[in-house]
């Protein structure tokens, strides 16, 4: 049982260390990028156990703020190949292994 407690403590320490956004790729303008990253962090923290709700929150906000046709994928260990509008892509990691991909296509 002590091993399980130590593993949970190590996992909590890891998540605390990696609790910052790491932008892997983006071509968004600075103002849009900053707002999108802050939105992604807020959604992932608010819906830590429900990626679908976090993605829905991000999509609805981006649609309202920057026009329609935004898409969001949140998860771990996924690959993708997308077509997107120029200057409308954000691919980032949050909390260590949680990936967030936000893009717009018409």
TrEMBL record:
The keyword Cytoplasm applies. Its main location: cytoplasm. Keywords: Cell projection, Cilium, Cytoplasm, Cytoskeleton, Dynein, Microtubule, Motor protein. It holds the Pfam family Dynein_light. One of its GO terms (biological process) is microtubule-based process. GO terms for cellular component: axoneme; dynein complex; microtubule. SUPFAM superfamilies: DLC (SSF54648). InterPro entries: DLC_sf, Dynein_light_chain_typ-1/2. It is found in: Cytoplasm, Cytoskeleton, Cilium axoneme. Consists of at least two heavy chains and a number of intermediate and light chains. Force generating protein of respiratory cilia. Produces force towards the minus ends of microtubules. Dynein has ATPase activity. Belongs to the dynein light chain family. This is Dynein light chain.
């Amino acid at each position: 049982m002590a091993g399980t407690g130590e593993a949970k403590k190590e996992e909590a320490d890891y998540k605390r260390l990696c609790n910052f956004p790491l932008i892997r790729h983006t071509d968004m303008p600075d103002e849009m990028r900053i707002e999108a990253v802050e939105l992604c962090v807020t959604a992932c923290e608010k819906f830590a156990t429900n990626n679908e709700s976090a993605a829905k929150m991000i999509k609805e906000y981006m649609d309202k703020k920057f026009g329609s046709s935004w898409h969001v994928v949140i998860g771990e260990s996924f690959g993708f190949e997308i077509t997107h509008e120029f200057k409308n892509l954000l691919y980032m990691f949050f909390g260590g292994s949680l990936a967030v991909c936000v893009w717009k296509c018409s």
